[in-house]
Automatic annotation (TrEMBL):
<dbReference type="GO" id="GO:0005737">
    <property type="term" value="C:cytoplasm"/>
</dbReference>
<keyword id="KW-0378">Hydrolase</keyword>
<comment type="similarity">
    <text>Belongs to the metallo-dependent hydrolases superfamily. DHOase family. Class I DHOase subfamily.</text>
</comment>
<feature type="domain" description="Dihydroorotase catalytic">
    <location>
        <begin position="59"/>
        <end position="239"/>
    </location>
</feature>
<dbReference type="InterPro" id="IPR002195">
    <property type="entry name" value="Dihydroorotase_CS"/>
</dbReference>
<keyword id="KW-0665">Pyrimidine biosynthesis</keyword>
<comment type="pathway">
    <text>Pyrimidine metabolism; UMP biosynthesis via de novo pathway; (S)-dihydroorotate from bicarbonate: step 3/3.</text>
</comment>
<dbReference type="GO" id="GO:0044205">
    <property type="term" value="P:'de novo' UMP biosynthetic process"/>
</dbReference>
<dbReference type="InterPro" id="IPR004722">
    <property type="entry name" value="DHOase"/>
</dbReference>
<feature type="binding site">
    <location>
        <position position="236"/>
    </location>
    <ligand>
        <name>Zn(2+) 2</name>
    </ligand>
</feature>
<dbReference type="GO" id="GO:0006145">
    <property type="term" value="P:purine nucleobase catabolic process"/>
</dbReference>
<feature type="binding site">
    <location>
        <begin position="67"/>
        <end position="69"/>
    </location>
    <ligand>
        <name>substrate</name>
    </ligand>
</feature>
<dbReference type="GO" id="GO:0004038">
    <property type="term" value="F:allantoinase activity"/>
</dbReference>
<feature type="binding site">
    <location>
        <position position="99"/>
    </location>
    <ligand>
        <name>substrate</name>
    </ligand>
</feature>
<dbReference type="InterPro" id="IPR032466">
    <property type="entry name" value="Metal_Hydrolase"/>
</dbReference>
<feature type="binding site">
    <location>
        <position position="67"/>
    </location>
    <ligand>
        <name>Zn(2+) 1</name>
    </ligand>
</feature>
<feature type="binding site">
    <location>
        <position position="183"/>
    </location>
    <ligand>
        <name>Zn(2+) 2</name>
    </ligand>
</feature>
Length: 431
């Protein structure tokens, strides 16, 4: 990383509102802003120069659902290491979930996180708790957290289980114009499940979590959003029926949005059997059936699913190296999200490049009411350099996260983020 307020990016192919990625241009950045876009631009004396050799450039990517673990669980991840993983994955902004210790349930914790990230090249937007200490009993100080910089509210890691509390939260969300992001899980139906309930779980003899545990909570929240006028955002959607519920709600004009993780449109529950109970394929929601995976892809294609997120969830190696049923849920995902999306969506012809980038650039920020970066003269330079065809292997040496709990370790990937530019800082990803 280098502090580079003045930079000439040579030979980039912009993709955005006014650019379709077909033209190779130069971008001049002065004092952190895009000063000029043209061809054959000459470097000024105080400018650094980077020849991108035909790489694409878009507005900086955003992951609206990550777990940075700090404060409280720094043995898994820190804000600094999480942002390093984000930069390697091409993300210039992330929104971090509040299941920390202490939980992000007050303005001082929100401001602590923002201050810790202030000198890093990745913007960190805290998501505040819905309930105090995430206990689901009383509402947190949502308006005060908004003043401190929170961008949404969630008790993620756990659902907002109390329907009256969820109603109040959505009423506040309507007044504050901020979404409530719910981990959709009916605990009475889901536990003690360790994987998707289906043919594979029956064959393996492992307690499963049925899709209906997710779907009943989504149905409740859609009805509450309709009743209150609040904005409910469905976190890490994973079942075919859940996608259909959101599709119908949107058609009815209800204020509901949703996101999906790459592993939920790539991997199925069969991975648990194939990989001999590898705990790096244990997450929550669990990997579902092939029918569910296909529904995620269809939902992305038709716009029902708004954004791609990672649910980046680092765990220390000793926490994952236990029997499958005792391992914590979650995997890291910041470093591999683009490659999985290229493989499953772009190369497969499901989404063209501009539409795929909407899931990374535009939609997450629109949901969170954040400024959307643009490639135009005078705009703040918030950029991601990337390609769609380079092959590379994701091994432990590539991991910038403090943890390595990924199902993609050792796999050959296609497409990667080559670097980011944000906050006058330029990060080039060497592999």
């Amino acid at each position: 990383m280098s502090y580079t307020p003045n930079l000439l990016l040579k030979n980039v192919k912009p993709v955005g509102a006014d650019f379709d990625g077909s033209r190779q241009l130069d971008l001049r950045i002065a004092d952190g802003n895009i000063a000029e876009i043209g061809t054959d631009l000459e470097a000024a004396g105080d400018e650094s120069v980077h020849d991108a050799d035909g790489a694409y450039v878009s507005g900086g990517w955003m992951d609206m659902h990550v777990h940075l673990r700090e404060p409280g669980f720094e043995h898994k991840e820190t804000i600094e290491t999480g942002c390093a993983a984000a930069a390697f994955g091409g993300f210039t902004e992330v929104a971090c979930m509040p299941n920390t210790q202490p939980a992000i349930d007050s303005r001082d914790v929100v401001e602590f996180i923002r201050n810790r990230a202030s000198d890093l090249p990745v913007d960190v937007h805290p998501i505040g708790c819905v309930s105090k200490e995430r206990k689901g009993i009383s509402i947190a100080e949502m308006a005060d957290m908004k003043e401190g910089g929170a961008v949404a509210f969630s008790d993620d890691g756990d659902p907002v289980y109390n329907s009256q509390l969820m109603r109040v939260a959505l009423e506040y969300s309507s007044m504050l114009e901020m979404p409530i992001i719910n981990h959709e899980e009916d605990l009475k139906l889901s536990r003690p499940g360790h994987m998707h309930e289906g043919k594979v779980s029956a064959r393996l003899g492992i307690d499963g979590t049925p899709g209906i545990a997710e779907e009943t909570m989504i149905a409740r929240d859609i009805l509450l959003a309709e009743f209150t006028g609040g904005h409910v955002h469905v976190a890490h959607i994973s079942t075919a029926r859940a996608v259909e519920l959101v599709r119908r709600a949107k058609a009815d004009g209800i204020n509901v949005t949703t996101e999906v993780c790459p592993h939920h449109f790539d991997l199925t529950d069969e991975e648990i059997e194939k990989r001999d109970f590898d705990t790096n394929v244990k997450m929550h929601p669990p990997l579902r059936s092939r029918e569910d995976v296909n529904a995620m892809i269809e939902g992305l294609a038709d716009g029902t699913i708004d954004a791609i997120c990672t649910d980046h969830a680092p765990h220390a190696i000793e926490e994952k190296e236990v029997e499958f049923i005792y391992a914590p849920n979650g995997i890291i995902g910041l470093e591999t999200a683009w490659s999985v999306s290229v493989h499953r969506l772009l190369s497969a012809g499901i989404l063209e490049l501009p539409k795929l980038l909407e899931k990374f650039v535009t939609s997450p920020r629109r949901i969170l009411n954040l400024d959307i970066p643009e490639i135009k003269k005078g705009a703040k330079a918030n950029l991601t350099l990337f390609n769609t065809d380079e092959t590379w292997t994701f091994d432990e040496q590539k991991v910038r996260s403090k943890s390595t709990n990924s199902p993609y370790l050792g796999q050959e990937m296609t497409g990667r983020a080559e670097g980011i530019y944000n906050k006058s800082r330029f990060v080039i990803n060497e592999i």
